[in-house]
Structures are given as C-alpha cells and as structure tokens.
Inverse folding.
C-alpha cells in the first residue's frame, strides 16, 4: 500500500494494490473536520474533533447519523455511540495487567480483550 503525503493543504492519500482508487485523507484547518474519501464518487467520511470535553464524531456519507467517540477522564471509559437512540459501546482500559473491556449497550456482558506479555496470547 502506498501512503503519499500532500504538500501544504493538499490531502494525503492511501492507495491499495493495483488499479484500485486511492483513499484521500484531508486535514481541515482550525475547527474544520478531517475527511476520508474512498475511491470515485463515494461520499466522504468526516472526523471532527471536539474541544475540551466534547466528543469526536465520525460521519459517514449523506444523511447518515454520526458516530460519537468520547474520551473519559482518568479511569473513566471511552464510549462510542452510533446514530440515534442506539446504546453506546464502552471501551475501558485496565491498569497494568488488567484486561481492556468493550461493553455493548444495556445489560449485555462485556467483552474482555487481554493482551499477554511476551509470548502469551
């Protein structure tokens, strides 16, 4: 895969394999969003960074609801919220050897992601 960095305000693009259209990643200025555009004629995805405690959001194409990514403080979890009325997913990072967990919606059991040390899995 090729990653090409534009000059100044030019976008970066990522090109996969032969004959495939590149993906463009453009960084906005100041409060403007970043966007990622795939191939020909497809709608861009927007990634906007909130200020301070505001969430980041990722918006796909036309008319679709944004996904919100909010970073908790200290030991608080991060959450990812999809669209309207959907329950957020929580991502909590454990300390030291504790696992990370990803929790989906209400009442669902968390998924644990544990990274072993060295050759552990």
């Amino acid at each position: 895969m090729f990653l090409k960095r534009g000059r100044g305000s030019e976008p970066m693009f990522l090109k996969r394999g032969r004959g495939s259209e590149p993906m463009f990643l453009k960084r906005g200025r100041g409060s403007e969003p970043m966007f990622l555009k795939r191939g020909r004629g497809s709608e861009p995805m927007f990634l906007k960074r909130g200020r301070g405690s505001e969430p980041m959001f990722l918006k796909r194409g036309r008319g679709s609801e944004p996904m919100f990514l909010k970073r908790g403080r200290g030991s608080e979890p991060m959450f990812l919220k999809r669209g309207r009325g959907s329950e957020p997913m929580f991502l909590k990072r454990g300390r030291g050897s504790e696992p990370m967990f990803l929790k989906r919606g209400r009442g669902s059991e968390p998924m644990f992601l544990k990274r072993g040390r060295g050759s552990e899995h």
About this structure: The CA atoms of residues 77 and 92 lie 4 Å apart.
